[in-house]
Amino acid sequence: MKYDLYTDEQLVNGLINNNKKIIEYFFCKKCSKLFTYIVYSIYGGRASLNELVNEFYVYIAADNWRKVRQFDFRSKLMTWIGVVAVRFFQKKKEVLIEHESSEALIEKTKYFSGSYNMTVDKTFDVRQAIKQISNIRYKMVIEQLDLEDVAPERLASKMGVTVDNLYNIHRRALLQLRLIGQESTYKKCLREE
Length: 193
Hints:
mainly alpha; Arc Repressor Mutant, subunit A; 2 domains
């Protein structure tokens, strides 16, 4: 997927002049990987991507794009935006994070399990997404823990790892699966334009 439709100068001018096409491109496509990174690195996957995009838009568009006007082109726009966004979201972390009880990682991420009354269509979609994961170990962990309901202790023993290590592998596998799902959503978005 290519995100370099505009130069930094075109993006800055488009934002400052409220060019709807450039604003949509910038926030929905150009910054998509940045926002995905922030969702998982700062918020641990517990914040809404749409909410982050909206919050950041309001922040940098305030006072007639005052923040964007401070960009001086001494670096790449995305490098500068990345620093601004990370600082902004670190300060806003407590406000934007979804409140939830502290429970084990496996319970928080077990939304693929049959115990949640998943429909056949959703199972099929998940299986299609799992096929796109390149790491064979990640595929196996998701399939066994989430789709086949294998006990974590049993799978950890079978793999020769500790249960804690299995949870770490599972977390990374789910992150990769989420990224594949988001990439698929962005591709669908591009096709609809």
